[in-house]
Amino acid sequence: MVRAIVAGAAGRMGSRIIHNIVHTEGIELAAAFEHPQNPAVGKDVGEVVGLPKMGIVIEDSLEKVIEKGDVIIDFTFHEASLNHARINSKYGKAMVIGTTGFKKEELQEIHELAKKHFPLVQAYNMSLGINLLYKLVEMATRVLGEDFDIEIIEAHHRMKKDAPSGTAIALANVIAKTLGWDDSTFKFCREGLIGERPKKEIGIQTIRAGEIVGEHTVLFAGTGERLELTHRAASRDTFARGAVKAAIWVVGKTPGVYNMHDVLGLK
Fold it and tell me: Where are the beta strands (DSSP E) in 170-222?
């Protein structure tokens, strides 16, 4: 039985991850923690997330619970996730990180720590559909190449802190890698007299509104036709199920950086 520790247990994603752990065979909740100032600290995790009492108190730090589990599931904040990885480098527990908004140097440090000290599944989006979308976008890019203009449109709820989404950036990276481009071709904003659209450009547009869980469309526009590939998430459980699946899979793996294609056998 895999013993899981959930970071940010009282948050939107932490809550859904705990619900999915409870209803998934082969894994159990061993511990949970939150930011020290979160009002959920000291309370039973079941009561906080809308489940019966579980006899597990939400602690105020990873250090207090890390020895209780086999894997840490972290969907928190980029600075917090980096700190958790630094702490875990002394313990070697498996990790699943779905946090977005990392600076390049932060993510690089997390990956370097994982390669030396612990197995890590790190992905900006852990849904099955999105990971299939990555493959479909790669195929479409390879076939259509530079003859089509490529735009990415992403939409999320009004509370999301980072923009564009990590998934949108990941999609852009798939396209750029396939074409032999780099991130200097990403275009995040257009305003005013912008002139003719350059051929070597990947547009990334952001929408923030209401309670949209997550939508991503990759548009390939050519002369006289266009192709649109879209994924819509209707519930955070889509991501939580993927995270729990990743947590079960990563325990026992050798130190290193893995992604959902490894977990789902898509490579």
Answer: 186-187, 202-208, 214-222
